[in-house]
TrEMBL record:
<feature type="domain" description="Intradiol ring-cleavage dioxygenases">
    <location>
        <begin position="72"/>
        <end position="100"/>
    </location>
</feature>
<protein>
    <submittedName>
        <fullName>Protocatechuate 3,4-dioxygenase subunit beta</fullName>
        <ecNumber>1.13.11.3</ecNumber>
    </submittedName>
</protein>
<dbReference type="Pfam" id="PF12391">
    <property type="entry name" value="PCDO_beta_N"/>
</dbReference>
<dbReference type="InterPro" id="IPR050770">
    <property type="entry name" value="Intradiol_RC_Dioxygenase"/>
</dbReference>
<dbReference type="Pfam" id="PF00775">
    <property type="entry name" value="Dioxygenase_C"/>
</dbReference>
<dbReference type="InterPro" id="IPR012785">
    <property type="entry name" value="Protocat_dOase_b"/>
</dbReference>
<dbReference type="InterPro" id="IPR024756">
    <property type="entry name" value="PCDO_beta_N"/>
</dbReference>
<keyword id="KW-0560">Oxidoreductase</keyword>
<dbReference type="InterPro" id="IPR000627">
    <property type="entry name" value="Intradiol_dOase_C"/>
</dbReference>
<dbReference type="GO" id="GO:0018578">
    <property type="term" value="F:protocatechuate 3,4-dioxygenase activity"/>
</dbReference>
Length: 238
């Protein structure tokens, strides 16, 4: 089996000078590409269903979280537009104030006792997934003077095994912080960057309850969603 390769500029380089911490972890020599073996193609296999509240981050605690409820939904597709069923999709994000429920996130924004910011769901037969959550806030991150990350949600997608994992970030349309964010702009190609931006979908909005944003994920090919290398996440949440 062969796949159409991703176009140049689709994925961020391991060394992105504007994203300062990549200089500390980017390899000094060109990487050696290893062929896939049995370990990469098989186990440990993913088994078991997601929990009953894993897809709804607003219902995981006794009270209502603070912030604007949103629905994040879409489909996971291959390079030919075919659905990818039974893929485990996990998300993690900051709360409405821009703070993660994480011990290393200690900037002075309030924590929300009714929102921990993590969820998961398994794609359906048509590759679809859906989460109900809270729109995250922007937050400072110390990369440069007055550095703020645009609002975003992290998505992790597993294939049939734990070794088959892809990670990306979903952004919101028309964010004023795009221009100064080196992580967003580490993807060289502008068209590829826009594939990380969700689309507001009024038809999918739940009346009197939640706005809706569509984010389809394409795993391979020329229209592939940009993905991060595993070491591109700093402190587990950027």
């Amino acid at each position: 089996m062969t796949y159409r390769p991703a176009a140049d500029g689709t994925h961020p380089p391991l060394l992105s000078p504007g994203y300062r911490s990549t200089a500390l972890r980017a390899p000094s020599h060109a990487p050696v590409v290893l062929p896939q073996g049995l370990t990469e193609l098989t186990g440990p296999a993913l088994t078991g269903p997601a929990g009953p509240s894993d897809h709804d981050l607003t219902r995981q605690h006794a009270g209502e979280p603070i912030g604007q409820r949103i629905v994040v939904f879409g489909r996971v597709l291959d390079s030919d537009g075919r659905p990818v069923p039974d893929s485990l999709v996990e998300i993690w994000q900051a709360n409405a104030a821009g703070r993660y429920a994480h011990a290393r996130d200690d900037w002075p924004a309030p924590l929300d006792p009714n929102f921990t910011g993590g969820g998961r769901v398994v794609t359906g037969s048509d590759g679809s997934y859906s989460f109900t959550t809270i729109r995250p806030g922007a937050y400072p991150w110390g990369n440069h003077h007055n550095a703020w990350r645009p609002a975003h949600i992290h998505l992790s997608l597993f294939g049939r095994a734990f070794t088959q994992r892809l990670v990306t970030q979903m952004y919101f349309p028309d964010d004023p912080l795009f221009a100064q964010d080196p992580i967003f702009n580490s993807v060289p190609d502008e068209k590829a960057r826009l594939r990380m931006v969700s689309t507001f979908d009024l038809d999918a909005t739940r009346a009197d309850w939640a706005l809706a944003y569509r984010f389809d994920v394409v795993l391979r090919g020329r229209d592939q969603t940009p993905f991060e290398a595993p070491h591109d996440e700093e402190n587990g949440h950027e």
